[in-house]
Structures are given as structure tokens and as C-alpha cells.
Amino acid sequence: MKFTLSWLKDHLDTEASLDEILYALTDLGLEVEDVTNPMDRLKDFTIGKVLHAEKHPDADKLRVCKVATDEGELQIICGAPNAREGITVVVAKPGVYVPGIDTTIGVGKIRGIESYGMMASEREMELSDEHDGIIELASGEVGDRFVDWLAQNDPAKVDAMIDIAITPNRPDALGVRGIALDLAARGLGTMKPAKTADVAGAFPNTINVTIAEDALTDGCHVFAGRLIKGVKNGPSPEWLQDRLRAIGLRPISALVDVTNFFTYDRNRPLHVFDADKVTGDLRVHRTLGGETLVGLDEKEYTFGAGQVVISDDTGVESIGGIMGGLATGCTDETTNVFVEAAVWDHIQIAHTGRALKINSDARYRNERGIDPAFNMEALDLATQMIIDLCGGTPSEVVVAGEVPDVSRAYKLDTDRVQSLVGMEIPAEEQRKTLSALGFVLDGDMAQVPSWRPDVQGEADLVEEVARVASLTKLVGRPMARVKAGVPKPILSPMQRREQIARRTTAALGYNECVTYSFIDKASAGLFGGGDDARRLQNPISNEMSDMRPDLLPGLLQAAARNQARGFSDLALFECGPVFHGGEPDDLRVQVSGLLVGKSLAKDVHGESRAIDLFDAKADAEAILAAMGAPTKVQVLRGAEAWWHPGRHGKICLGPKKVLGVFGELHPKTLETMGVKGPAVAFTLYPADIPLPRKKNATRPALQLRDLQAVERDFAFVVDKNVDALKIVNAAIGADKVLVEEARVFDEFIGGALGDDKKSIAITVRLQPTEKTLKEAEIEAVAAKIVDKVTKATGGILRS
Amino acid sequence: MEDLRNKYLEAIAGAGDEAALEDLRLQAVGKKGEVALKMRELGKMTPQERQIMGPKLNALKDEINSALAGKKAAMADAALDERLRTEWLDVTLPGRHRPQGSIHPISQVTEEVTAILADMGFSVAEGPQIETDWYNFDALNIPGHHPARAEMDTFYTHRADGDDRPPHVLRTHTSPVQIRTMQAQGAPIRIIAPGRVYRADYDQTHTPMFHQVEGLAIDKDISMANLKWVLEEFFAAFFEIDGIKTRFRASHFPFTEPSAEVDIQCSWVDGQLKIGEGDDWMEVLGSGMVHPKVLAAAGVDPNEWQGFAFGMGIDRMAMLKYGIPDLRAFFDSDLRWLRHYGFASLDQPTLHGGLSR
């Protein structure tokens, strides 16, 4: 909402400075977004007088002038045709910034003669487009500030323009008078009486208006209008044009400018029809759908069903409360005008405006809410202004519908400000504030002014009182702990798991990424998504069209971007939500890590090597362990298609309880995602780790065995596709008391064994519990191990 | 005897290597060495002579032994010195590489915010990100026609033909978590809800996804003055600046009443922003007393309970605190950015250890 200081002063009698007004506006909730103050911009320009002017010896079009200024006589070279002795001018001395040419004046030499400043044109000071010559003032004393002269002689030129942000609850502040009322309530001045008009109709109105039944209840509450005959349209007066231009509107003609003036002055949109272009009467009704209208913006609109429009006998002529039609709009030739002041249902306006995608000043105000009680007066005021500017004779008024009754009152509980806001404001001051805002107090009931649709309850009264008193004055008051003492932990087990997963993964050398929750359809499709349920209706680009089904596509894209920047060895991870459907509950938290390239950058110690799935496995196991996952797990195959079919594993607690997956990514997936391999990854599901059953912190007692443990190595030849874990598990199962640990320490494939065989070497640690093992006992266990492994895997002991 | 002593001490001192030293040991104090031979002679002596010569011979044996040990140690030292002289490595070569991971600023700042507000009794609540329009709008006093709905730049999910349900939305703020948590837990309640939110906007200062943290405190007598105290304490702790000034400005949000936008003190010098000093103000969050309609929608009786809510941008707080210039870079995963603005894995923010280094 834009307005100027002088416009504000039409309504507010105030001595407050611009800065005081700006501060109060923001503090009242009318946040100042922008201020343009020509007084600031032009404050260094002063008035001077040309004492002497003569032609520059080396240039026909230049003159050497002696100019009287507040700093004495200055020599200024000037190229303007009107630079001559005796005229009063505006001078920019060296050091002054000239906005129109974006230059700070310095001392210079022009064709060999020094110049100590500049005499300015209107365009150079951004006062107008005038640039035929320098300004000649009809009055003014040498040395006076030019802005002071302007304030006296041409105040519109130094009028400060203020732009404020209006929150949706404050339609009243979409009119300058509403803003003035807030400032007056704050104590920044007093309200000037509102203009009144009481226009008598000189003849019966001939354009009748009706509101169809289906539009009456929630379409158009009241439609008032009248004819003014014999107007002479044309440019509006300079003061009105200045006002409109100052707030960024283009003056069009007196009739149209009058409606724009009321829109901004009183938050009162109006419409004017060229009465001679209206055929028959006007009818407010709902559309059937398919009707069209070319609006005042010269665009054609096609209506859906049920939108509220104004039609004459030939069809739709205006979109009620949103935009008029081009065909019946007023032009310079208009001589008979029909003025409309109506109150439209604000919800209907919002729906229709949104459907037609029209953002007009009228829609903006009508959907937020105008003052319905002002309707008839607005019609008279507008009529009066049209007659004043364009002449003409007004008819009687035609009214369809009824002005809606919005009167309501709420109880003012003056203690509520204290209990809800925490401010001490005397009851009398609270009542004074509300009265100043237009509330009518009757005992402790406050009648809400008709222009404040936002006030809908007692809490709103508190808000008004606190707002006007200023929340800046609010003093903080300590909020006690719910319970005294050491605060209890507040994170849930899942929340702790996520934190631990993040920090463990980072400690393992991964860089945490936060990638977008949406991704392109093709990538989503590669990872099990891309369906309708997870598709966005209105994505901002094709790269962000689908909710991500997995973290890996985002990490792969990040890897591809980093590879393009020249980083080939990457360890990236993310911990965040993925979506396995389109419903609110379909959210799951994942932790995914991606390793690309070498395990280390090439280094002097010769330890750099290509990463492989065992890197990913080790990291996945470490992170799972940190999150509290059981150590006894199964590793199964058969995960999703984006993994290398033979080179991945699912870490499971049983076939359906998957805690995570690790492995190489499918070469095709990598290729499609544009990542140069090798690349391995893991994905973990923190929520699927069972919660620990125990409830206290006590550890089981440590069992230290003093008896000597014995290690024995075995090598088995098995088929190539036998899992080593099977051998290990069989060995462990051979003697559950004595076998403490079994682990693989060597793998050898092919060679003399044949292409389809491999040798797996394990070391088994036997820990006696009661007495030292004798050789015969060790041999017995070893035999059991060989037997078990052979039974489980078909392997034979390698001799 | 004095001759013997001098002879051997001299020879030991002059011995060239360990073998020579061993020869000398055998000659002097070995079983058949000269000292041993002398010892044997003791048996032929008178008791008086023996009393004099016995201790002398023992002393001589000790003296020779200790000279031998001393010389042996000196030789070993010399040999070690000689070996060490040849053992030289270029210590300017790099150490074995340890990969250096990092924590993203959003995770770090979320933990910082959580640490501070947990101490004031707020627990962490979470909620869906694909949300129904009721939770995202209606329950928060934003009815279908409300201009705020259009201004939110909402993302909608696709609805198949024939599915007449209103489309779900990507939550435009973390506020729906207020409703869900109050529905589940009732009042009194103190929660924060950090997380991703979505708005269809992308330019210099906006990304279609960013992070918010919502705060909610409902009890019998919580007032806006409590809100101001909580936020003042929060900003002082978060920015690690005692007495940082805050300013409450009247504003409007459909879900709070009264509503206030909150600014913190800052200065701009040569384009450099400094928080907690100077005369300028920086808008950092929106807040207010929870609207009675919102409490009612969440099943909490507004005649009995009242309290405040606030919401701020986590990404923005990270930018302000750590001087990170561009929001868009947060989501670009540029390794250089992650390393530069990221945090070490063990830099976990705590109140007792400090939030930042």
C-alpha cells in the first residue's frame, strides 16, 4: 500500500516528523517497506542567481557563467540554451550527487576553462522529464535550499512516498484514512473530519439494477448506482494526477482517476460504466460457464460456472468487484456515466479472482473486506467529485439488495491485556484506544467499527489495545520450568538415533548433504518412485517434480555435480525423510552413504585403492552398531534393482526385517545418474532397529577367563557361490561352549582348485572355561568343526 | 695387586669392541682369570693375611666388573648413536590420510536450537511433510478463501482423475505439528518442531525447500511477556551475545493473536552484518499468542488454556550466526561448501560445553 505524506495529512492533522511517522507505522503493524523522500535526495541543491554569462571562447554552445551562491560567486560552464544573466537557478556545487545523471559533481575543466558546479534541469533532479534547459525559478533567495523552495511553491514534488506491507487482516489500512486513524490512536495527531456529501438526484435513474436470487446471499450483498448525465471527461486536475503518479498509478481520465482515488483514499473500489454503451438494465447474476468478457486490461476472460458478474441485455459487461469490461468502460468521449458502489461477498471474490487469475486493486480490497456501512456515502462522495471535476447532473440512486449488517460487540475485559499479553495498561487508556480506533463502548461492551472485519472476538480487542500501546514496551518475564530441578532428556530414541547416525557417519569421513525432498521423475522412477501419488501438481521445475522415494538419487546427483567440479573421490551422506507414498504417514527416515572413486587420494604411502563394497559394509555396520543394532544379523541378497545383483547384501534380523543394505550400485543406475564409478553405497533404516529391552544402565558382569585360549586355522574348499558366513556359522555352531569366535582370514578363488571352487580359511578361537584343553580335546572339537562345515556347505578340509 | 688393577682398567678403557671386552673379562674375572687365580691363593694364606687380602681382592673384582659394564654400556650407546645417524626420514612427507567428514550447518544449528530450548523444557515433536490441507491451513485458522493461502506459494500433490479428495499439500510451515501434537498430548505442552518446509519460490533468497523450527508453549497462565523472555534468552544463548536486544512489532498471522514479528539488534558496516550491536534491526521470526480457534481445532479448551507459538528459519539462523551468504548453496552439496561451512563430527553443541567453538 503506497501513499504520500501530504495525502496522509489530508486526513491527519499532525506535527510529527516523517521519521516519527515511519517508526509508528512499523510498530503498529503497518510495516514500512520502502520510503522515497525527495527532500533527502535533493537536500544539497541550493538556489543561485546568474550574475553574468558569456560565450565560451572555444565552444559555440557553451556559456561561461558567474553564479551567485551561498558560497560566493562561482564560475560554472553551462550548455543550456536558456543560461543567461539575471535568472534564478538551482545549483549543484562540487560534491553534490545528481540523481538524474547518477553523478557526483566535481571541479572540472571544460575546453580549458574551469567549472565549479552545475546548474540543474528538472530531469537531472528527477522532478520531471523536462530537459530543454535549466530550471528558471520565478522566486527564491540565493543560498536557500531548493527543497525548501519546492515545499513552499510546489509541494507535490517533495512529497515523501511511503510503501507499507499490509497483513491480510487489515483491509482498513488499504485506505489512507484507515492508516491515519491508526496513527491518531497512537497519538501522532488528530483526525480531520471526513468529507461528506449529500447529493440530491435531479431526475429518475434510467438504468435499473437487479440481483438474481442465486447471487444475493453469497454473491453480492448490495449494489447501488446512479447515472450522471452531461459530464465532460478529460485529464484530471494536476493535484490528482500527481497523487496517482506518486503511488505508481497512471492517470487515465478524470472519471477513472476518481475511482482510483477512492480506492486508495478510503479503501473503496468503485466502478464507472459509460452509460451509453450499456444496453438495457444491469443484472447481477451467476455465470453458467463459458461466457467471455474482454476486461479493462484488454485480456479476454472465459468464465467458469457460478462466478458473479454484471450483465446488460447483450451479455456480461463487468466482473463484479474485480474488473470492469472494456466495452462499457469510460473514455474521453463519455458524456453519460453510471457509477457503481457495491458490496460483494469477499469469499466469492477470492474464488473468482483466483480462478480468473486477476490481481486488480478492486479484487485485492473486495476480498479482504471493505466497509459495507460506507457504501451509500461512497456513492455520494464519488458523485460529488465527478460533478466537481467533470460537471454533469446526477440522477436518483438505484439500490438492489441490502447493506449487510455487520454490527457486533465483544466484552472488553481490561484484565485480559495483563493476563494474555503481560502488559499493565490502565483500563481508561484501553477504552480510549478503542474509541480512537472507532470502537463504540457501551459499558464493557465494545461495538466493532464496520470497517474492521478482522475483529471477531475478545482476543482481538486485546490485540488492538496492545498494538496501539506498542509491543516494543513489552518487558520479558521469566517462564518457570515445568518442574524444578535438572531437566529430563527430551529426545526420543529415534531422534537420538538420527543424531548418532549423523555424527558417526561424519566421523567415518563422510560429508553430510541436505538435498531437496523432490527430484526429477526419471530419477524417482529409477529408485522405486515416480508414481502419481508422489507427484507434485505444481512443481517449480522438471528437476523437482516428484517426492523422493530414496536418498540415493539425490546423493548420486550431488556426486555427479562434484565430479563435474573435478572432485573424483567422494564420501557423501544424508540422513532425512523419504516418501514411500503420497499420504501424510508415508514418511520414513533413511541414512544413506555414497562412496565414489578411491578409498584415499593417491598418496606417498601407497595405500590408495578403489573403494569396494566392503568399505560400505564396514561403515554400515559401524553406524548400525552406533545406533544400537544387534550384532547378530543375517546378510541376505535380493535387494532392490538399483543394486548390483551379485554385489550387495541386506543386513537383516530375519528375512523381512531389513536394517540396511550395502553394496555396489548397478552399473546402469550409475550410468543413468551420470556418475563415474566405482561407487558403493549403503542405506540404513533407523526406525527398524528394535528398541533395547533393558531399562536400566547396569552392564552384565565382565567374565574374564584365566585359562589359555587356543586358536586353530582351517581351510575349506567349497563351491564358489557358497557364502563364507555359512562356514563361520557352522564353525560357531560346532561347540557353543568352547568356540568363542570364528572369523574368515583368507579367500582364494580358482587356480589349482578349478574355476568353480574357492578356498576359505578361518581361524577359530577356543576358550576353555574350567580347565586347560588337552590336545585330544582340541582334536575332538576340530573334527566336529570340520564335520559341521562339511554338512552345511559341502566343503572339504583343504590338506 | 695395584699392577693388576691398572693393567685391566687400562685395557678395558682401551678395548675396541665387544669381543675384546669379553676376552678381557675372561682374563681378569673369568673362572680361570687372574683375579680368580689370586683368590685361590687366599687358601694358602694365614688368617691374618686372608683378612686383609680377601676384601681387597673382592673390591678389585667389583671394580673390574663395573668397569666392564660401564665400557659395555658406552659401546652400546656409541653403536646406537651410529645407527641412528643413518636412520633419517623426510618428516615433511604427509601423514597417513584420515578422511575428514562433516556435519551440515542445518543439522548443527538444529541441535543448537534443541539444546537451548530443551533446557527450558521444550521437547522435540515431528510430523508429516506431505500434509492434509486441514492440518496445514484450516486448523490454523486459514480457511479456503483466506488470502494467506494464496500467498503461501503452496505445493500441492497430484490427484488422479476421479479422486475427488482435496489435494494434499507439502507443509508450508511446521505449524501443523502444533495441531497434531496437541491432539495427541493435550495441554499443558511445550514443544519445538524443527524440520523441512516447502514453498513454490526460487530466487536469490528463496529455495523451494527450507527449514523451520516451531515453538509452542501452552499452560494456564503463559503470556506474551513469557514469550519475549524465552526469545531473549534464546537469542542471547544462540548468538552467544549477552544482552542482545530484541524488538517486538505488532503484526498478523492467522494462527496467533496478538501477533508480533520479532527483530534482533544488528549493524551493517561496509556491507558486513553484525548481530547484537548497532542501531539497525533484523527481522528473524514471527510469533504470538496461539489463536483460540487454533487451540479449539486441536482439541484444547481455549477458555482454560493459553500460550504462545513462534516460528523461525533454521537455515536463516545458520546464515546469520555463521555468516553464510547464499541460501541456495545449502542444498547444492558442493564439497568445497560442505567442508568450509560444515562442522566436525564431535562438535556436538551442548549448553555446558558451549554451542560453537
UniProtKB/TrEMBL annotation, chain A:
All copies of the FDX-ACB domain together span: 705-798
Keyword annotations of the record: Aminoacyl-tRNA synthetase, ATP-binding, Cytoplasm, Ligase, Magnesium, Metal-binding, Nucleotide-binding, Protein biosynthesis, RNA-binding, tRNA-binding
Q: Which CDD domains match?
A: PheRS_beta_core, tRNA_bind_bactPheRS
Q: Does the keyword Electron transport apply?
A: no
State the Gene Ontology BP annotations. Answer: phenylalanyl-tRNA aminoacylation
The entry lists its GO molecular-function terms as:
ATP binding; magnesium ion binding; phenylalanine-tRNA ligase activity; tRNA binding
B5 domain boundaries: 405-476
Task: Kindly list the places in or outside the cell where this protein is found, as annotated in its UniProt entry.
Answer: Cytoplasm
* Residue intervals of the TRNA-binding domain: 39-147
InterPro entries (alphabetical): aa-tRNA-synth_II/BPL/LPL, B3/B4_tRNA-bd, DNA-bd_dom_put_sf, Fdx_antiC-bd, Fdx_antiC-bd_sf, NA-bd_OB-fold, Phe-tRNA-ligase_IIc_bsu, Phe-tRNA-ligase_IIc_bsu_bact
Q: Which cofactors does this gene product need?
A: Mg(2+)
Q: Per the UniProt record, which EC number(s) apply here? A: 6.1.1.20
A Gene Ontology cellular component where this protein is annotated is: phenylalanine-tRNA ligase complex
Primary enzyme class:
ligase
Q: Which Gene3D superfamilies match?
A: 3.30.56.10, Bira Bifunctional Protein, Domain 2, Ferrodoxin-fold anticodon-binding domain, Nucleic acid-binding proteins, Phenylalanyl-trna Synthetase, Chain B, domain 3
Question: Mind telling me which NCBIfam families this protein's record contains?
Answer: pheT_bact, YtpR
HAMAP family given in the database record:
Phe_tRNA_synth_beta1
Describe its assembly: Tetramer of two alpha and two beta subunits.
Name this polypeptide is given: Phenylalanine--tRNA ligase beta subunit
Give the species.
Shimia litoralis
State which gene encodes it: pheT
Automatic annotation (TrEMBL), chain B:
Catalytic reactions on record: tRNA(Phe) + L-phenylalanine + ATP = L-phenylalanyl-tRNA(Phe) + AMP + diphosphate + H(+)
Q: Which GO terms describe its cellular component?
A: cytoplasm
Q: What class of enzyme is it?
A: ligase
Where the record annotates domain Aminoacyl-transfer RNA synthetases class-II family profile, the positions are 107-332
- One GO BP annotation of this record: phenylalanyl-tRNA aminoacylation
**UniProt-recorded Gene Ontology molecular function terms:** ATP binding; magnesium ion binding; phenylalanine-tRNA ligase activity; tRNA binding
Compartments reported by the entry: Cytoplasm
Q: Which cofactor does it need?
A: Mg(2+)
Give binding positions for Mg(2+).
257
Write down how the cofactor binds this protein.
Binds 2 magnesium ions per tetramer.
Q: What is its EC number?
A: 6.1.1.20
- Recite the UniProt keywords alphabetically: Aminoacyl-tRNA synthetase, ATP-binding, Cytoplasm, Ligase, Magnesium, Metal-binding, Nucleotide-binding, Protein biosynthesis
Alphabetized Pfam families for the sequence? Phe_tRNA-synt_N, tRNA-synt_2d
InterPro entries found in the cross-reference section: aa-tRNA-synth_II, aa-tRNA-synth_II/BPL/LPL, Phe-tRNA-synth_IIc_asu, Phe-tRNA_ligase_II_N, Phe_tRNA_ligase_alpha1_bac, Phenylalanyl-tRNA_Synthase, tRNA-bd_arm
- Enumerate the NCBIfam families for this protein: pheS (TIGR00468)
Query: What is said about its interaction partners and assembly?
Result: Tetramer of two alpha and two beta subunits.
Matching entries from PANTHER family are given as: PHENYLALANINE--TRNA LIGASE, MITOCHONDRIAL, PHENYLALANYL-TRNA SYNTHETASE
Spell out the family assignment given in the record's similarity comment: Belongs to the class-II aminoacyl-tRNA synthetase family. Phe-tRNA synthetase alpha subunit type 1 subfamily.
Q: What is this protein called?
A: Phenylalanine--tRNA ligase alpha subunit
